[in-house]
# Entry
Amino acid sequence: MKTHKEAGAGNLPLVVCLLWLCGVGLRLPVLSVPPVIPLLHDDPVMHLTKTGVGILSALPLLFFAWGAIPGSLLISRLGARRAVTVGLLISTIGAALRGAAPDVLSLFAATAVMGFGIAVMQPAMPPLVRSWTPSKISFGTAVYSNGLVVGQIIVVWTTIPLVLPLLDGSWRLAFTAWAIPGALTVLLLLLAAPREKGPVAPGPLPRWWPDWKSPLLWKLGLIVGAINTLYFATNAFLPDYLAYVGRPDQILHALGGFNLMPLAGSILMIFYAHKFARKAWPFMLGALVMLAGLGGVLFVDPNWIFFSTGLIGFGNVSSLILAFALPAQLCPPEDVPRVSAGMFMISYSCAVVAMVLGGLSWDLTGTPYIALGLIGLASLAILTLAPRIDFRQGLDR
# Structure
């Protein structure tokens, strides 16, 4: 269906700015939590326990998985632009409410609201990219993914040295401050975003429930699940692994490489994703790069760990950007929202299960190697799945 959005794709600078800001909004509220966890531990009202930290960290992932299907329904009723705007508004409200939470349960509830908002946004981004940049799907996906990467770098690297000192060390004000960019992006979407002729109530709904019998849906969900598992497993288990081997001094370098090198990967994809799109070999190459990085972590002098984890991060984000673009590239326009929703539900469910099993294996065995093995298994899963996707689908559309 022809939309005004396609005509609006000619206003590329505006579209690029809005897509990038939406990408920032997908990560900024989520990753504003880790830097203030010590303050939540020490707060006399919250006094967050280790179990509480686990719940606070797992809630967004659970909502990313199980909120994707309601997100697909919302997209089918409102259209992609409106769904992204509503999702970002919900996420921003939830993120800000965390700063006013009177107790732990309220903090969890506000975090759940934030997670649901992002769960609505995620499946709306592929159809939005297809609508705004119909002839540059890989480019549009790389742009919002770059915003996602930059968002996580900004919040992780500036909260402790810059934001908290400016706010008298208040974790409450920090949560509120990191909600401001989302609120400004909502305003820009309302005032400046190109309009679309999306579905509006009343009337019959387009198809929104994922086709769980579709082999393509499961292949996409599992390959993104492997990529997400690899990302969360590295962030969760690498610091404790370095402490286990007696090199806690390398934790900052390890996380620095893992979180900074994806920026290079996302920039590379902005310029070259169209050359790598709809091919199996870039996914396989990315998996091999991540395996090489894991080998570096396990077998190379820890003084080089910045480069080893950098390889993991570079391969991870490059593969993720290419995978995010696939629903819009391989499916008819009317199916992109429901395929995206199903893909995110499968992928985050896989990540949650894998993380639980990885942590449980560490507790039971007393060693980190099975947990770190998730990185290797996820890479092997990508190597296995990528050649089984029919990238010729959609070539005539």
